[in-house]
Design a protein that fits this description.
The complex is a heterodimer of chains A (about 525) and B (about 800). By secondary structure, chain A is α+β, with helices and mostly antiparallel strands. Chain A folds into three domains: about 200 residues, Ubiquitin-like (UB roll), CATH 3.10.20.30; about 110 residues, 2-Layer Sandwich (Uridine Diphospho-n-acetylenolpyruvylglucosamine Reductase, domain 3); about 110 residues, Enolase-like, domain 1 (2-Layer Sandwich), CATH 3.30.390.50. Chain A is built from 18 helices and 20 strands. In chain A, helix 16 runs antiparallel to helix 17 and helix 17 packs antiparallel against helix 18. By secondary structure, chain B is α+β, with helices and mostly antiparallel strands. Chain B has three domains: about 150 residues, 2-Layer Sandwich (Aldehyde Oxidoreductase, domain 4); about 190 residues, 2-Layer Sandwich (Aldehyde Oxidoreductase, domain 4); about 260 residues, Aldehyde oxidase/xanthine dehydrogenase, molybdopterin binding domain (Aldehyde Oxidoreductase, domain 4, 2-Layer Sandwich). Chain B has 20 helices and 31 strands. In chain B, strand 29, helix 17 and strand 30 form a beta-alpha-beta unit. In chain B, helix 18 packs parallel to helix 19. The longest helix of chain B is centred in the middle third of the chain and has 28 residues. The two termini of chain B are about 45 Å apart. The chains are: A alpha+beta (about 525), B alpha+beta (about 800). Chains A and B meet through helix 2, helix 3, helix 4, helix 6 and helix 9 of A and helix 1, helix 17 and helix 19 of B.
Amino acid sequence: MTAPNGHQTTEPQATHEVTVNGKPCGLAGLDPNTTALDWLRGLGLTGAKEGCAEGECGACSVMVARPDGDDRTQWTPVNACLVPAAALVGGEVVTAEGLGSPEMLHPVQREVAVRGGSQCGYCTPGFVCSMAAEYYRAGRRPVPAAGDRRPDPSQNGHEPVDSVHQAPDHEHGPNGFDLHALSGNLCRCTGYRPLRDAAFALGEPAQSDPFAARRAAPAPVAAAIRVHGDTGTYARPGDLGEALELLAEHPEAVLVAGSTDWGVDVNIRGARAPFAIGLDRLAELRHLDLSDDVIEIGAALSLTEVERGLAGRVPLLDALFPQFASRLIRNGATIGGNLGTASPIGDTPPALLALEASVVLTSVAGERVVPLADYFTGYRQTLRRPDELVRAVRVPMPLSGVTAFHKVAKRRFDDISSVAVGFALDVRDGVVAKARIGLGGVAATPVRALATEAALEGRSWSAEVARAAADVMRGEGTPLDDHRASAAYRRSMLGTALLKLHAQTGEREEVGA
Amino acid sequence: MSALSERPANPLVGQDVPHESAALHVTGAALYTDDLVVRTHGCLHAYPVQAPHAHARVTTLRTSPALEVPGVVRVLTADDVPGVNDAGVKHDEPLFPSEVMFYGHAVCWVLGETLEAARLGSLAVEVEYEVLPALVSVRDAIEAGSFQGGQPRMERGDIDAAFGSASHVFSGELEFAGQEHFYLETHASLATVDENGQIFVQCSTQHPTETQDIVAHVLGRPSHAVTVQCLRMGGGFGGKEMQPHGYAAIAALGATLTGRPVRVRLNRTQDLTMSGKRHGFHAQWRVAFDDDGRLQALDATLTSDGGWSLDLSEPVLARALCHIDNAYWIPNVRVNGRIAKSHKTSQTAFRGFGGPQGMLVIEDILGRCAPLLGLDAMDLRRRNFYTEGQQTPYGQPVRHPERAAVCWDQVRSSAEIDRRKAEVERFNASHRDLKRGLAMTPVKFGISFNFTAFNQAGALVHVYKDGSVLISHGGTEMGQGLHTKMLQVAATTLGVPLHTVRLAPTRTDKVPNTSATAASSGADLNGGAVKDACEQILDRLRVVAAGRLGIAPADVRFGGGEVTTVGGGRSVPWAEVVNQAYFQRVQLWAAGFYRTEGLHWDSSVMHGSPFKYFSYGVAATEVEVDGFTGAYRTRRVDIVHDVGDSLSPLVDLGQVEGAFVQGAGWLTLEDLRWDESDRSTRGRLATQAASTYKLPSFSEMPEVFNVALLERAHEDGAIYGSKAVGEPPLMLAFSVREALRQAAAAFGPPRVSVDLASPATPEAVYWALEQARRHTEHGHVVEGAPGAVPDQPDVDAHPLRPHSERAAQPAPVRT
């Protein structure tokens, strides 16, 4: 069958299948707005649960087969409550039921069971999937004792940077298990200690482990598909050209990558997409170009992939990643999505503003590059036209030397910012040659702290200057009162952020200068 | 040692056993109520129409547009109720209200072939409202004089004389927030009707019998027409003690009207906006100390925020009053309690059931007053502990008060408190922007339902001809490991291996007239009943075995799956004795019963001995606070907790740790915010999602977390020498709050009294440390005799008269 734009698609949809726990499952009659969770539960696989329906609790976590480079697969846990089932077509999914059975427990399941890691058991299948994915993470290795560590060159940048240099501590097991892998899973019963112990007790997968073996082969190819249903159509284009043509035909289309924001709209606000375009598997949006002048990050790379690919090259983003939602969300969420939804409390914009990033917008009419500082035009409004999509974001090199990401929230991990600040200061000979400060949560859009930047530039990076500039920064933006924080607190946080930055970096920079 | 508490040789109780469903949990095989839907043919889905006002009269309800929506089958309204249109036991909770009492109140329910059809149908229902003024905050209600239920007073000694003569008198106020249960499994019910009109409701409920009662009265049917089953719950925490009944009634009503299975499952938003929560409180207090910092008197008025209906607010308030002393001897006491009626969800039971709220008041007082007395907060707490021979303000002798001291000393030494205190001082002296705090707090918590009648339980034990055993009891499993413990109790009593015993799901047609699985009492009560049933069977088998072994029945012993002569000379396998008993026509099953002895309570004067015993524990917590933001982390927690002789140490350890973290969530992170503005959204819960109402996650787990169960802790009055564990450790989390207060104080000069809001979010801690930096004298504590006298209750208000007294009167006859 030929789609209106001339591209071949794989209709009729009766042939659409997802491999679930090793068995092909048809999607006949699937509505494109149905979540993967509802679809799986409808198959009788009720292990995955709905705890919150917005990607906060992880009770719905399942593993999907995602590319690890071109020729390998990484088991990647995602929130099944957010992902449309249609987006899984052609893919492979593993649920807690597929990992093991009560008679034949998977090693992760065994550790959780015998250590008291389950009480009510409702969050448990999701924990098991998140934990199993970390168990199978290619870069996970037992960590040498503190004081004798260096990055493993054989890993070739495959490890999340937040664990490369990590000695065993309360967040990193001696087996290389990064507890942040579970930051998107909530348990209301145990207090987490036995789950941590279970995670840190895991060994290496056995030679015969089929999930471990599966990693050595490429991930499934995401072919172009259309899924039609009562409430609309889900289209996964085969390439960027097809995506742009679809978008030109359907400017009202919902652009979906990780669906970590759209899925919430579907579940919580009852939104239904008459036409959705799935961008997450488009090769043209999944590149990471590293050069001396610029880093270009494909808009549809998940934040986890960006983090892995950058491998520490952008310290400011490294500071951001662990504070951006949870690992489960970062496995789906993209920078393109974060800029596309243009939330004033998104976490990447303050960092990208400080990095002087620009946005590459593309459409059938061509491509343009817009400085991020000009991109946001109002509350959830941007310069992006309906027929355009975010193809990539560019970060100019070289980077400033003093960078930090300050996120103020109620909870340390996986919370939404009350205030977020990205700093990039170029300090030369003790003088602030350039200051770029991005702010989130203090205005209708992410903004640059221009007055503060001016108060710093050309002055010495001293406590006195920091104090004076902090007073300027306190006046930036127009913070509001809401359930996350009072306006007074937000204002105070604007006022202390620079003081904190100076306390953490000032002396060292001055000494080094 | 009592017959109840004595353990046989080699008991299975006391062994580390994983949760009985652990293998099912980890593989996703464990079924919860809503997992049954896909296994149920032809199920209808119910969806509520929630009112967008905090207080309003329903003037018009047009359901016909919903019926135009494809897939909508029926809309349930008040007109459909054949029995009583009420979802509670106090008849103040209309199931289908004509007056909306809180934002999100469900006015009717739509049944659809799919959940999506029901949801679209709910959007099509047309409702017109006459909006009425709404009282949202507890202060609104106090100012308006809006109260409900009884107003209890607990008194001892001579308040006026004590305040007149004391060396130090302080007065203050405290308002603190409630807490959302956030069980991971939201409310769920699935109802079917059989060919005979028998209604079967599968429900996520802590109180199947009361769910059965409510379903029966809504349907106008006797209780024998309704069976309620609870497979297991994905968490309860008190939130499914009283709250599931209405949802079960909706499902049952729908099923009886349509003849089809009906499922009610709240999504998270519905659960958060419709179901009750832990009560927030307002407290006014004045307190008197002698020169040595010994408490002389406490005069307080506690006002709980009950929300729109009474629910369990009266017993929650009673328990708050009964725990305002925590572990401290206070010779002169006057505490008044009252329940505000506000336009919010009807607040309900939540782990601790008022105990945490009462204790928060005294711990806050001690934390704020210690610097003003010039005393170290640890010393102030320790020197006020109860000692042997003293009584609580409600007249109950405090048994085993030395256990609090033993726990305290053990934590002090195992956590190296003296060394670390010095270390914290050094750290604080050398860090301008980071400060640490180290605090220790005790817990003394009374075990038993205040409502005496609830302290009974039943069990049904079947021994089959092959020797295998099936037990049923009245308790429900919500993750607390009750079923695991009951398996251990049955296997211990019968002397058979654990795998010989199996446990059936909780059903009202197996064991009737059960109490809620609540008040931490599940193992005490049901364990007593299971043991009783097993012993009845053993008494009969003993005769059979005596004949077989040729000895006197008194010389028969059961253990390890064998039946032996005393001294272990000869033995017969358990299964053989059982099989022989069958052929001798000996009854192989028994119904067991247990009632807690020695309780008495007069709620009208708040006096008596309502508790079988007290549970004790002590925690020490060290935190580090960032002076730029108020953000903090919990560096280390050390706990010693008294669970008696543990029935199941792995389970109990999990309860202590989980309760502590949940308590820390209440006190630090979990922030219920209601819209108190005058906009049209007044009364709306602003934090109605997991993205805005944050639970503790891995990041809140203490970095070092040492928990020990108190050793040599036999409790004579409970099953196999154990103690209850579900609730008490939640209150160990006061150590986190007090450590944060100390760290905040360290930003200021010495002896600064710091006010700390609850929950102590980073923002609240920031304001606290700013207050310390500015050194506002005394915070908001006022010093000077005789102190500010708290509001006294309305002289016409009736004292608390909950069920216990009313139940003694003839029950209203229902036909």
